[in-house]
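User: what does the whole thing look like in 3D?
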Amino acid sequence: MTTTEAGTGSTGATPCHGEAAGADGSPEQVQGHGHDHGHGPHGYSDQKDQHLKRLRRIEGQIRGLQRMVEEDVYCIDILTQVSASTKALQSFALQLLQEHLRHCVAAAAVKGGDEIDTKVAEASAAIARLLRT
Amino acid sequence: MTTTEAGTGSTGATPCHGEAAGADGSPEQVQGHGHDHGHGPHGYSDQKDQHLKRLRRIEGQIRGLQRMVEEDVYCIDILTQVSASTKALQSFALQLLQEHLRHCVAAAAVKGGDEIDTKVAEASAAIARLLRT
Amino acid sequence: MTTTEAGTGSTGATPCHGEAAGADGSPEQVQGHGHDHGHGPHGYSDQKDQHLKRLRRIEGQIRGLQRMVEEDVYCIDILTQVSASTKALQSFALQLLQEHLRHCVAAAAVKGGDEIDTKVAEASAAIARLLRT
Amino acid sequence: MTTTEAGTGSTGATPCHGEAAGADGSPEQVQGHGHDHGHGPHGYSDQKDQHLKRLRRIEGQIRGLQRMVEEDVYCIDILTQVSASTKALQSFALQLLQEHLRHCVAAAAVKGGDEIDTKVAEASAAIARLLRT
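Assistant: Here's the predicted 3D structure for the full assembly of 532 residues, as structure tokens:
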């Protein structure tokens, strides 16, 4: 994979934008940036659909939890379903994180300069937040 | 608080039913059991509503995650929202667990016999599942 | 199981002392209390030895981590060992917690009064701390 | 690879070694890269000492847990100390991981080729193991 491909690939799942993120990554800017720097439409929408499928499944699990509470299902059985939903959220986070390391962090390393430090600090902070929950 | 009150309180949020849970706690049985053993209608529906409010908030967070993915929000910002949703699920689980210890486990201890062993083993396994995720 | 048995059993692994813990559980008081309320010497020292064995194994794992760092072992291999040590600590915590629910919390429920509320709140807070790490 | 060779690794705190990454990454190249990006032996031993200090502190906490068990300290107080030790282990893991991303993963990205995929998969698996505990 060439540097250029790495740059393109880096927006495969979610946009990479060190500056926007570092400085004042407002949703608008973030989206704009994501679109500006173009998605390989195919690989892109594939991954995006996969993420949305996962999240819709999790949304269904949360609605299932509401039914369980409404139907007075046994507490322990509800806790088992909560564990399953938490695990599904963690797996989604791990998938996103892996793509981020593979594309955004790698692209920053290739690009050189200080951006890699920002990206690594940012990713480490995100991992810490995942561990703390 | 008397044993009887504890027994009633024990179905305050979710039904306590050692046997149904131990043997074959099918949702039907579970609900039946929960209803049979009556809910102090007030405290009951209060807690139930509180649980449902929490879960609807979490469902909203999951839909928010879907929007973030659709709008190509920056990966790290999505991970932050995932951490928040996981934390909210864990808090819901802790709330359920505390009510379960306060009511079902305590009631089993007061009742005497082996049920307390089943209840404690069951609760410990649920805590282990929460820790492993 | 009678209240008295519950009371004795409750110091099987670690002393139960709601007031001492609630008020000012100083190590001295805690130990004194633990000893005053007597350990079934056998079951007691068995569990205690088991806990100490687990903790010595974990201490050995931590020393192993120091050797790995000194010998410049590959980062990922060190992280794998950290995960194993964390898991071992969590298992130790779960074992302690289960004994605590089985003995101290159950004894408080049998005893009646408000102590059960303190015990359950205390245990729930401990579970929350374990989840947050 | 010997300890000394590993000691000249590119990561400052822990070596990056291609053979672990498989594919075409030779340790020499990776280390060479590390040196290009200037980890003086000083920064290196500084980080190493910092890691060892952290681990000795954790070892002390584990010995403290053994004393608490021997002295029949209240179960809940032991659990609080277990949470502190787990948190300290997680912080150590996060520090190692951040250095690994900054040095080994970044070096693999700069080097190009498939090694970055191996490194990212490896790091993601390590993060998953940390999350699962």
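In plain terms: The first helix of chain C runs from residue 3 to 9. The two ends of chain C are 36 Å apart (CA to CA).
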